[in-house]
Amino acid sequence: MKRLLKQLVVHALVPCLALYGTMLPAHAAGREVVCESSSMRRTFCSTGPHGDIRLISKQGRWECRQNETWGTEPEGIWVDQNCRGRFSVDEPRRDSGSNNNTGAIVAGVIGLGVLAAIASHNNRRDEDRPPDYGRPDDGYDTWMIGRYQGYAYRDRQNLTFDIGPSGRVTSRGDGEPSYGRILGRGDQMVFDNGVRFYIERTRGGVRLTNVQDRNHVIDLQRIR
Fold it and tell me: What pTM did the predictor assign?
């Protein structure tokens, strides 16, 4: 009986899922954008609101690695460290008139999925189930997002650091602003000129320690 129930559920679920897939709104045809970084500096290329963005090919000898030397913003692409890439940019997703029926289809899919899960559960012991390891978090800690102020004793200047949700860093002092990014899960910060800092969380902000010179330390306090 349980085996028969599973077969009935599967046969009913397959055409329903196929119908639901045809009703999902799709991205419009994409366009191509070339975005280039020169002199190892970060460049932002505006695209306006967009859907998926994919790297088609790199144009130079320098590597283009997503989230390291190129990435996306809500309205554009950024490239860094001489990455020169050709990108496919999809148009934003638009709702179609058939969405009125999507809710009913989803409800049917969910209901059949529950029945399938029940039937499968009755035919399999708990200890036979593979463990769910989840998906590792490849982003940096969100506590870091914000604005900080501090004083660089070595350079004798006041500094303001802005750290954005995408991991981009803007440092402002007495001269021109400097730009960088957070690496990995948030243990280092690197600037366009190649200078790197270790990041340490403190009670009121962060401490930056120069990777090449441990005596070069900057303490920053959060102001926003």
Answer: 0.38
**SS3 assignment, position 147:** strand
Please give the Cα distance from 208 to 188 (Å, whole number): 9
Do 81 and 107 have their domain in common? Answer: no
d(C-alpha 105, C-alpha 112), whole Å: 11
If asked whether residues 67 and 43 sit together in one domain, one would say yes
Q: How far apart, in whole angstroms, are the C-alpha atoms of residue 42 and residue 36?
A: 9
**Of the candidates 172, 181, 175, 178, which has an alpha carbon nearest to the alpha carbon of residue 220?**
172
Task: Provide the pLDDT for residue 25.
Answer: 47
- By DSSP bridging, strand 168-172 and strand 157-163 are antiparallel
Residues 194 and 153 in one domain: yes
Taken in order 162, 173, 187, 66, the sign of the CA dihedral is positive
Residues 66-120: tens digit of each pLDDT: 999 999 998 899 999 999 999 999 988 775 444 555 555 555 555 555 555 555 5
DSSP E strands, 13-124: 31-36, 43-46, 53-58, 70-73, 76-79, 84-89
Span between the terminal Cα atoms of the chain, in Å = 62
CA distance 168 to 180: 6
Q: Are residues 82 and 172 in the same domain?
A: no
With respect to residue 135, please indicate whether it lies within any of the assigned structural domains: no
Amino acid at 155: D
